[in-house]
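<amino_acid_chain>
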Amino acid sequence: MTTSSTHHHDAAPSAPLTADVLERFAREVAKYPEAGKASAVMACLAIVQQGEGYISMQREREIADYLGMAPIAVHEVTTFYNMYNQHPVGKFKLNVCTNLPCQLRDGVTALVHLEKKLGIKMGETTEDGLFTLQQSECLGACADSPVMLVNDRTMCSFMSNEKLDQLIEGLRGSTKGEAA
């Protein structure tokens, strides 16, 4: 019972961008000369994701319109970086490095362990909406493998199966008492 999240299709249009979001966009664009306002694309994507949890195709088009960019140019940025979610993800996004140096030091073992523990495959989200499991190309800490990144912010190194179990239980425990 998993929610597959390998492809995202906008089911129904979202409400237009709010005045607050557009004001935040304007503050980012103001940091660049008029001819270079497309340089604010990453900041605008981050603003949308912070508010909505992911970046839909509709939001990509709206950002493209706002910045005077081709929609495909915005989509290329969204798809290039792991930090941008193209579909809803769990409360905890777990990115496991599976690049070759990490593969040689149990990176794939860590990914397989998490798949079994969470009952999902890479790219999926647990039914309770807590965990999304993804792979990363490189997290820049090859000597600390297996490594993973939690919610694009917290780097975890030397992740043995025991440490992975502790991490999952700790994250689950941190949600106890929250309204469902």
In short: The radius of gyration is 18 Å. The first strand starts at residue 2 and ends at 4. The CA atoms of residues 97 and 139 lie 6 Å apart.
